[in-house]
């Protein structure tokens, strides 16, 4: 078997409506399966572990059934469906184009039997008969034109010829949507980032398909200039907001206050409000400073990234903040982000510019006593910084999706609410018999009723009983084969 | 000889059917009275609760008359029924308007409000189908659905709750409006497809198999999710907070009603019997099994009614324990809308089947011809499908504004897409392949089955982001 015949076989298989329907059913079945089996991207790892035994989970993972919608074979199925849609449309396009660009304006005797609706009415002469038909068709909202072919004259009337393109519009819209989705599958990403108030960060965490995490650096830093929430009287949340600024190459390039349902869009990257919380980093710390030589203790408030001046002119700053510490080999290390067991390193700078470093290890002793300084410090209280939880996504393919949706809306309206109606009329060579025939591409029942009305009107105007026939057999099949 | 027997059966059956209907009417009046006593009606006379109550009474009257028309075939009934439906629709509109003005937003944010809008749409479509398409009998299927929905609403928490941030979006309202419209249109197309099958002379046996399959699916769904070694698990409900008791976010606390699980297993098996007999009858080509199956159908209907009554009696303010937590917890009907909807749905389906069994000839005289029904089903789906498409698109656009992705394959989204595919398949086959008649009707029925699963099944059986709707 040559390459050519293999190709023609593949082409033949893919260009059939049957294959397309088979593929879309398979996609539907796997989608349904994907809603029954817990999916990694939309469920917590603990939920998966609770729901399935380790062996089952390993098996499901191996088969790709825990992330069906991002599995390569699922995307392949969608791609194959797209190919099928394209080939089916391309194969049938010339026919539709012919109907549109070169409509059959004169019904040759050989063409006439293929029409589902026809009528024959005896008449006196050609000219008067055709003008009667013209008048009747005009009354029914159809505008007939006179057509001459091979010396014979006939009438042709049609309505909503563009209706033949509806199916291509719908197919095209589906392609746009799938193409958009597939593009996003390859170049799009979605992750989250927690930005504490007053800080600027630029690295988001992406959740990968295996439940692990990878990081991605954004082309800018997101600075949170403020965040807050409002609640209803009953305590349920009403509004979450964050004041954000974007910093590109050290300069602020854009700023916006976002709320849920109103994201920040910048250069195709969308930033969403997703959660809100209290950071484990304080905004300010309050200390009680007691002079070592004795005297009145004073309270001093120190911002995390600033300094405060004490009564005698020495300045106090926070050098390090460790929310949950442990000590190893005389060094302080961070154990976790929970602000349960903090350690603070203070810097006390005197008028000569000499800085003394002091530790408060809160759990051990809330004091700097014994560290040889003019003051003893103890933590009194803290105000905490808010952080804002942001979702960051880049999905350039979504424009394909929205274009597809709009095209589909048009396509469906044309498909369901318009129909291509065609009516021909001609008089036999001897001028004694008028023939009128018509067809439509959908909603045949209504057209049949309308044709009957036209027929009755013609018979009345021409004042004669007619020989008519309705071709039932052909009715359903004429357009199916096209 | 046989004909005479059939005729006799017919006459006897008609008497029995009327008896059943009268019994139902009394049972219903009692239930309404109970509900009225249970729910104190305060506020102005034009207020939402009173208007909804008026709508319930009017719809119930209309439903009874429509079903009476189905049984007795008296034309006067249907005229009165449509007047009652219209009056109920006005009261329903007033209820919607009142709630809208109080909440300051359209009523779509929880199960109660969605049912309110759904019922409104369904009544409207029933009136349209009756006026525009002359399908008079449609009310005997759609009006019982509205009655069941309004009863369910009486049990759901109805206080106006403020919207959490994610739900504060115009797109959400567009999305839910379109969903209600398209689902109601799907419900109407389902009713029409069933009527087509009646007019197309589908065998009563097949209808029986269809009905018992539905019942089996309902009770299988309940048992799979709620059967716990003989007990039936229901969600614990805090009567003071008027909300479910949660263990953690998204995980409500299930308490166990002892022995009710066994009863439901029994009901499930009884629903399975007619289906098994039907399959056996088909395989053996033995017609006599069908008569046995009919009796089994009656038995399962009785059991289902008894099961529902026992469920209501035991759930209403009962106190039960849970293995996950110490102490006893209360439960209440509002915490179990889906269980109730399933049970009542099963009973209504069974009653409709009995109506068909006893009054088939009369029904066939009253219904429009098969051709008309087939065509109207197609037209209604032609309306439902674009609405469905726009509903999904509006939902995707909202998700893109709220969650950062237009499509995240959560179960509700996925099932909406599957629903779309099924109806797309119907239209594709009809337009390009000329599928009409019985094949198309089955397709429409399948489509509505998927709609029901998307609307109820996904929320109830499958976890997902759409958890807001459960409240």
- H/I helix tally of chain B: 13
Low-confidence stretches of chain B: 1-13, 464-471
Annotation, overall tally of beta strands of chain A: 21
State the share of residues found in helices of chain A, binned by percent. 25-40%
Shape of chain A: elongated
Silhouette of chain B: globular
Oligomer: heterodimer
What does this structure look like?
The complex is a heterodimer of chains A (482) and B (471). Chain A is of the alpha+beta class. Helix content of chain A is 33%, strand content 38%. Chain A contains 10 helices and 21 strands. In chain A, the strands form 4 sheets. In chain A, strands 4, 5, 6, 7, 8, 9, 10, 11 and 18 form a 9-stranded antiparallel β-sheet that branches. Chain A has a 6-stranded antiparallel β-sheet with strand order 2-3-19-20-1-21, with helices on one face. In chain A, strand 7 (237-248) and strand 8 form a beta hairpin. In chain A, helix 2 (17-36) runs antiparallel to helix 5 (72-101). Chain A is elongated. The two termini of chain A are 31 Å apart. Chain B is mainly alpha-helical and 471 residues long. Helix content of chain B is 74%, strand content 6%. Chain B has 13 helices and 9 strands. Chain B has a 3-stranded antiparallel β-sheet. Chain B has a two-stranded antiparallel ribbon with strand order 3-4. Chain B is globular and about 55 Å long. The chains are: A alpha+beta (482), B mainly alpha (471).
């Amino acid at each position: 078997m040559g390459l050519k015949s293999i190709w023609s076989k593949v082409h033949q298989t893919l260009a059939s409506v049957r294959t397309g329907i088979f593929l879309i059913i398979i996609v539907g079945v796997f989608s349904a399966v994907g809603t029954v089996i817990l999916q990694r991207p939309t469920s917590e790892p603990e939920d998966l572990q609770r729901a399935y035994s380790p062996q089952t989970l390993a098996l499901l993972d191996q088969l790709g059934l825990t992330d069906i919608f991002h599995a390569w074979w699922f995307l392949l199925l969608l791609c194959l469906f797209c190919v099928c849609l394209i080939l089916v449309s391309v194969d049938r396009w010339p026919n539709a184009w012919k109907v549109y660009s070169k409509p059959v304006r004169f019904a040759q005797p050989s063409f006439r039997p293929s029409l589902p609706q026809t009528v024959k009415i005896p008449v006196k002469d050609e000219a008067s008969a055709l003008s009667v038909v013209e008048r009747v068709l005009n009354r029914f909202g159809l505008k007939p034109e006179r057509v001459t072919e091979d010396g014979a004259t006939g009438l042709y009337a049609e309505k909503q010829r563009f209706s033949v393109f509806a199916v291509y519009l719908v197919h095209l819209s589906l392609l746009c949507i799938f193409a958009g989705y597939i593009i996003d599958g390859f170049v799009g990403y979605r992750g989250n980032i927690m930005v504490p108030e007053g800080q600027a960060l630029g690295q988001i965490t992406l959740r990968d398909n295996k439940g692990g995490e990878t990081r991605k650096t954004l082309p800018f830093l997101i600075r949170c200039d403020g965040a807050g929430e409002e609640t209803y009287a009953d305590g349920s949340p009403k509004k979450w907001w964050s004041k954000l600024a974007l910093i590109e190459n050290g300069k602020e390039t854009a700023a916006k206050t976002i709320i849920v349902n109103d994201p920040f869009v910048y250069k195709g990257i969308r930033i969403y409000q997703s959660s809100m919380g209290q950071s484990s980093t304080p905004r300010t710390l309050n200390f009680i400073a007691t002079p070592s030589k004795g005297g009145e203790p004073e309270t001093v408030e120190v911002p995390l990234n600033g300094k405060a001046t004490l009564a005698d002119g020495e300045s106090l700053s926070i050098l390090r903040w460790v929310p949950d510490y442990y000590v190893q080999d005389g060094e302080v290390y961070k154990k976790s982000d929970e602000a349960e067991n903090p350690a603070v390193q203070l810097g006390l700078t005197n008028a000569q510019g000499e800085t003394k470093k002091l530790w408060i290890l809160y759990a051990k002793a809330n004091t700097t006593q014994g560290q040889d300084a003019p003051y003893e410090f103890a933590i009194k209280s803290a105000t905490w910084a808010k952080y804002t939880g942001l979702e960051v996504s880049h999905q350039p393919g979504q424009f394909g999706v929205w274009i597809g949706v709009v095209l589909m809306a048009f396509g469906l309206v044309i498909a369901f609410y318009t129909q291509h109606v065609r009516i021909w009329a001609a008089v036999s060579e001897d001028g004694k018999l008028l023939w009128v025939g018509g067809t439509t591409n959908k909603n045949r029942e209504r057209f049949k009723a309308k044709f009957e009305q036209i027929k009755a009107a013609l018979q009345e105007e021409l004042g004669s009983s007619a020989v008519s026939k309705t071709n039932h057999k052909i009715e359903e099949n004429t357009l199916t084969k096209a | 000889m046989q004909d005479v027997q059939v005729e006799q059966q017919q006459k006897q059956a008609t008497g029995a059917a009327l008896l059943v209907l009268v019994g139902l009417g009394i049972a219903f009046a009692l239930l309404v009275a109970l509900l009225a006593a249970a729910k104190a009606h305060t506020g102005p006379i034009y207020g939402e609760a009173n208007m909804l109550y008026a709508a319930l009474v009017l719809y119930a009257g209309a439903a009874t008359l429509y079903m009476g028309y189905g049984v007795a075939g008296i034309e006067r009934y249907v005229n009165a029924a449509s007047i009652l439906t219209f009056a109920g629709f006005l009261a329903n509109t007033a209820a919607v308007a009142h709630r809208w003005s109080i909440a300051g937003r359209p009523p779509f944010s929880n199960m109660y409000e969605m049912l309110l809008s759904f019922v409104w749409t369904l009544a409207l479509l029933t009136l349209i189908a009756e006026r525009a398409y002359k399908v008079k009998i449609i009310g005997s299927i759609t009006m019982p659905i509205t009655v069941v929905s309004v009863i369910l609403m009486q049990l759901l928490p109805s206080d106006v709750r403020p919207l959490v941030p994610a739900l504060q979006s115009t797109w959400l309202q567009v999305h839910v409006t379109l969903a209600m419209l398209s689902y109601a249109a799907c419900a109407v197309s389902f009713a029409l497809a069933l009527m087509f099958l009646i007019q197309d002379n589908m065998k009563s046996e097949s209808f029986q198999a269809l009905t018992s399959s539905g019942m089996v699916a309902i009770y299988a769904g309940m048992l799979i999710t709620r059967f716990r070694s003989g007990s039936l698990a229901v969600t614990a409900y805090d009567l003071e907070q008027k909300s479910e008791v949660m263990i953690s976010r998204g995980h409500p606390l299930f308490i166990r009603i002892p022995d009710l699980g066994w009863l439901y297993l029994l009901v499930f098996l009884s629903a399975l019997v007619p289906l098994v007999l039907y399959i056996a009858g088909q395989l053996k080509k033995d017609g006599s099994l069908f008569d046995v199956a009919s009796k089994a159908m009656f038995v399962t209907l009785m059991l289902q009614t008894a099961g529902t009554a026992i469920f209501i009696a035991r759930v209403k303010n009962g106190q039960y324990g849970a293995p996950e937590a110490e102490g006893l917890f209360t439960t209440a009907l509002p915490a179990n809308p889906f269980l109730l909807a399933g049970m009542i749905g099963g009973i209504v389906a069974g009653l409709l089947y009995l109506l068909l069994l006893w009054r088939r000839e009369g029904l066939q005289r009253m219904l429009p011809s098969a051709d008309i029904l087939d065509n109207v089903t197609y037209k209604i789906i032609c309306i439902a499908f674009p609405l469905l498409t726009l509903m999904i698109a509006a939902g995707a656009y909202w998700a893109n504004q709220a969650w950062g992705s237009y499509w995240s394959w959560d179960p509700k989204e996925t099932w909406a897409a599957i629903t779309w595919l099924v109806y797309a398949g119907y239209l594709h086959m009809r337009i390009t392949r000329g599928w009409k008649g019985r094949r198309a009707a089955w397709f429409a029925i399948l489509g509505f089955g998927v709609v029901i699963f998307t609307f109820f099944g996904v929320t109830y059986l499958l976890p997902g982001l759409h958890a807001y709707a459960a409240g």
